[in-house]
Design goal:
Main location: mitochondrion
Number of domains: 2
Strand content: 5-15%
Membrane topology: Multi-pass membrane protein
Protein name: Sidoreflexin
Radius of gyration: 22 Å
Structural class: mainly alpha
Shape: globular
Number of strands: 4
Helix content: 55-70%
Number of helices: 13
Order of helices and strands: HHHHHHHHEEHHHEHHE
Keywords: Amino-acid transport, Membrane, Mitochondrion, Transmembrane, Transmembrane helix, Transport
Transmembrane segments: 98-119, 145-164, 227-245, 266-285
Length: 324
């Protein structure tokens, strides 16, 4: 009889970067975005049945592993709800390659910069909301403020940086306007979209998954790591590709096919993102941890509440989902 799969644990060791890379390369497979909702729901049912040891007779490990892949790629780990397909991390490659390619190609006019930053931040807002810690509620007003603030920060950064470079640098440096705008917007968009987490705190658990309290410090650590991951995700494509295109555009054959420059940039970005999405997601463990001694020092009220909740038997470390 085959050994049972640990259905709620990754297939690879998450204590190492290589293990996390393999996990996210597997779970962010863009092809899962093409799976119909009915099949996704069936995968969720099989995962739930397997968790209880009540899966249909004859179910193979291969079927369970595939169902696990679909479940983890399409359903939120906190709420168990099916995510909007455009907000899933598995949609980052097709969505990111289209938007990043467009931003890198259409950077010469202020109108193009404003339009593509608006489209990109609309997409980012959806991704950030979809992959938040779902146990923290966010009001419609908070979402609106986050969206407007992030979009405005991206546009202001892009236009300001573009205007500065027009006076102080050549056309090549202006190719980096999109990256500056995206990096700045991530620093605004993610914290605002997940503001309920760092304002009210998020649930933290012990090593047995028992909730021991709430922590704003944990929320801050998780959000900071997500910001770093998102900037890392787009950095190689947005920093290296301008150099590649600058050199290619000097060739006569490239000058004859200017209408293909945008599709080429989209494909190049896709090549980067295939690897950078799992790299960025795997930079930090999904199940983030925090020493309670740090909590005692920086967030004494939360620490005191945890002491009461655990009858003074507070664990050495607490754990929480950092989001993506």
């Amino acid at each position: 009889m085959p050994e049972r799969i640990k259905i709620d644990e990754p297939l690879w060791d998450q204590s190492s970067f290589i293990g996390r890379f393999k996990h996210f390369f597997w779970v962010t497979d863009p092809l899962t975005c093409m799976v119909k909702d009915e099949e996704l729901d069936k995968a969720k049912i099989l995962v739930e049945q397997y968790r209880l040891g009540k899966e249909p007779k004859g179910t193979t490990n291969e079927q369970v592993i595939y169902a696990k892949k679909l479940y983890e790629s399409a359903f939120h780990p906190d709420s168990g709800e099916r995510q909007n397909v455009f907000g899933r991390m598995s949609f980052q490659v097709p969505g990111g390659m289209l938007l990043t390619g467009a931003m890198l190609q259409f950077y010469r006019t202020s109108t193009a910069v404003v339009f593509w930053q608006w489209v990109n931040q609309s997409f980012n807002a959806l991704v950030n909301f979809t992959n938040r810690n779902a146990k923290s509620e966010v009001s419609t007003t908070q979402l609106g403020i986050a969206y407007v603030s992030a979009t405005a920060s991206a546009m202001i950064t892009a236009l300001g940086y573009k205007a500065y470079l027009q006076k102080t640098a050549g056309p090549f440096m202006q190719r980096y306007v999109p990256f500056a705008a995206v990096a700045a917007a991530n620093c605004v968009n993610i914290p605002l979209m997940r503001q309920a987490e760092w304002m009210s705190g998020i649930d933290v658990v012990d090593d047995k998954n028992n909730i021991v309290g709430q922590s704003k410090l944990a929320a801050g650590k998780g959000i900071t790591q997500v910001i770093m991951s998102r900037i890392t995700m787009c950095a190689p494509g947005m920093l290296i590709l301008p150099v590649i295109m600058e050199r290619l555009e000097k060739y006569a054959w490239m000058k004859r096919i200017t209408y293909l420059h945008a599709p080429m940039q989209v494909m190049f970005v896709g090549g980067f993102l295939i690897f950078m999405v799992p790299v960025a997601c795997g930079l930090f463990p999904q199940k983030c941890s925090l020493k309670t001694s740090t909590l005692e020092w920086l967030e004494p009220e939360a620490y005191k509440q945890m002491l009461e909740n655990t009858n003074n038997n507070i664990p050495e470390r607490i754990y929480f989902n950092k989001g993506l």
